[in-house]
Amino acid sequence: MTNYCFFNTVKAWGGGEKWHLEVASYFHKKGEKVLLVASPNSVLARKAKELGITVHTVRVSNLSFLNPIVVFMLARLFKQFKVERLIMNSPRDLKCAGLAAHLIKLPRVIFRRGSDIAIKNNKLNRFLYQKVVHQVLVNSPATGNSLNANNADLVDKRKIKLIPNGIDSGKFFEEPSNIIYKRLADEFVLCNLGRLVQQKNQTFLIDLAVELKKRRFNFKLIIGGSGPLESELKQKAAALGVADSVVFLGFIERPKDVYFSGDIFVLPSLWEGFGYVLAEAGLCSLPSVAFNSSSNSQIIQDGKTGILVPEQNHVLFADAVIKLSENDKMRKEMGEAAKSFVMKNFEADQIFKKIEDAIM
Known about the structure:
This protein is α/β, with parallel strands linked by helices.
């Protein structure tokens, strides 16, 4: 039996938190000893407790690594739990928990890198990636390439292991769902799901709505998720005269409620380490339209399971949306191809076994 600690103090719920919960649950079900460290009152902490996973909550800031009290508290926690494998997800956690692990010479420190963003080439990062971290798991080739974008020697390539995110299709299909938006007449429904933050770029969707309305296209855009930009996005939709075409659904507990309410999925993210939502939409037989950037082509086969368009081009994005709306047969065939592709390439059992083998 191995003692695992999954350390993720991000309060919001996103792809990294979903990954931590699912992988921690995989090891928990196998009978391994699992500790999950999370932010107090976070969705991750709540969901982990519901699954019977041991949860310890702690507040960590970006500067907590400078606080010896916090660092030694974490070191003591790792010792008490006899942690053998520490798995982290965010740079903030890596600085703090990574330093604590280094102090007690924890056997194996794993950093799961899920964002396609170049790492700053500074002394702290060189220390963390070269002296603290034993292995880096990346979820896409784009994420892997970003590690050494600013310094070719920052992360030893032998430490890097590419393993995409996994989805338990059986569990996904079994979960209950309800249509969260009932279409009016023959309108075409575009759906999007994600935190309302700059990275997810929902402001582009407001511009897309303007373009579609200009073309007298009968549509509704439903956006699931909450975040700091919610008020700003609603104000922009009102100011540009598309508030009646855009529905903000708020935080979504069950993603399928959104997917089953739409005809296609649209993703304008500026970057994605691995687009969980693209894979989930595919399982729901929805074709997607997204930017031809970051890791999107890892999940979307352009012209087969969806359409990839140039970044920030709302005119070509609108063209793709209308193209899918005008051909029911093509749209359904793309949706079924998306479902088949996801099940073949990202099934959870296969992915989690690869993670287990990699971090042993």
